[in-house]
Design a protein that fits this description.
- By secondary structure, the protein is of the alpha/beta class.
- It folds into three domains: about 130 residues, Rossmann fold; about 170 residues, P-loop containing nucleotide triphosphate hydrolases (Rossmann fold); about 140 residues, Helicase, Ruva Protein, domain 3 (Orthogonal Bundle), CATH 1.10.8.
- About 45% of the residues lie in helices and about 15% in strands.
- The protein has 19 helices and 16 strands.
- It has a five-stranded parallel sheet, with helices on both faces. Strands 7-10-13-6-14 form a five-stranded parallel sheet.
- Helix 13 packs across helix 15.
- The longest helix has 20 residues.
- The chain is elongated and about 80 Å long.
- It starts with a strand and ends in a 17-residue tail after the last helix.
Length: about 450
Amino acid sequence: MAAALCLIEDDEIMGGALSMRFELEGFQCDWHRTGKSALAALAKTRYSAVVSDILLPDSTGEALYGHLLALGGKLPPFVFMTGHGSVDQAVRLLKLGAVDYLLKPFEPDLLLGMLRELIARQAGSEAADHDLLGISPAMRTLDELLLRLAQSKTSVLITGESGVGKERVAAKLHRLQGGEHPFVAANCGAFTEGLLEAELFGHEKGAFTGAIKAKKGLFEQACGGTLLLDEIGDMPLAMQVKVLRAIQERQIVRVGGETAIPVDFRLMVATHQDLKARVEQGAFREDLYYRVNVIQIRVPPLRDRREDILWLAARFLDQACQAGDSRRKLLTPAAERALLDFAWPGNVRELKHLLERACVLADGPLLTAELLFGKNTAKSDPALAATLGEHLAGHERDYILRALDARGWQIQETANLLGISRKNLWEKMKKYAISSGSDAAECGGDAN
């Protein structure tokens, strides 16, 4: 299907020429002459990109863009064009999140190249980045490992601190295997022994008080798919015996029942504990340990993969924006630095909850360091000093920000100043989670 473009241009000659060229180049183009018409179309159509003039008969492109931002939600990439522009206006629009700003006259090939690259990046982001575990080397290596593990049904043990995303890793491995069958997860530490047995194996009618009808357990519900036993290290020893038998024999008996029921599933287990140490302490069965520990995956803590912090923060803010009707929230540069400096004992879960709280309490679109962490803003921990790579990356990010500011956030001019291509600059901005809007507070004070 052809990518859909929204063209907003009141000039008949310019609009007609661009519309025809877009169609000839394989795009689907909706041409609107007024801001009102464009707003109505943007409300009901999902466009791959928007190309808008600044001066419109009933409004301005800047006002239209500001109105859409105020409504919240994810906007398509915006490219503005005008014959009466100013540097101040360009800076304002780029700080708000517009992709680029072209002065008329310009070469149509420049605009077409920009659109193709934007749409390719957008498609790649939706198809691939949507399911990435992270952008750090450690998480990219983990993504590659999951691709290999998806070719078999070997039991997998997923380890890592609480909150690192062990269940998300298990769910992704399940999806890589097709995902058409059930994915069933049970937290072994959330139930008493009696309740856990009924939860895993199910029960027959009348098996105990309140069992008014028969119920399938999670072992049965997972048939054909994946069963994740989360926090298996907290499972009572008596239950470990029953679970081991079910895993080995691939059949279960419901609580209060007598008939053996066959079950077939891929087993994954997860824990924040050291199972080998638990075996040595007598708290975990050695035979069950070797049965579940065929292939072990370790999910590193967030403090050991700091490249993921701002990337995850951007995703969580996108989710918060899509879930509610509030204005899109942006992190100030000081807030970004505070996130990077924090030790994250609660890992990804803590980061998500912190941002959710800040979004609820924020009076405006900007999330400050004080709003995130209170008056005692997170400080760097000397024991968690950055690696040389992290230190250099931080300086590169700061230099790119200064270059963008010096060139009024004109992408091509900034790329020329840095001696790199426009594409390379976009890639670095994505790597360091630099967006035009997120740095508004530091680059001119027009964020209010």
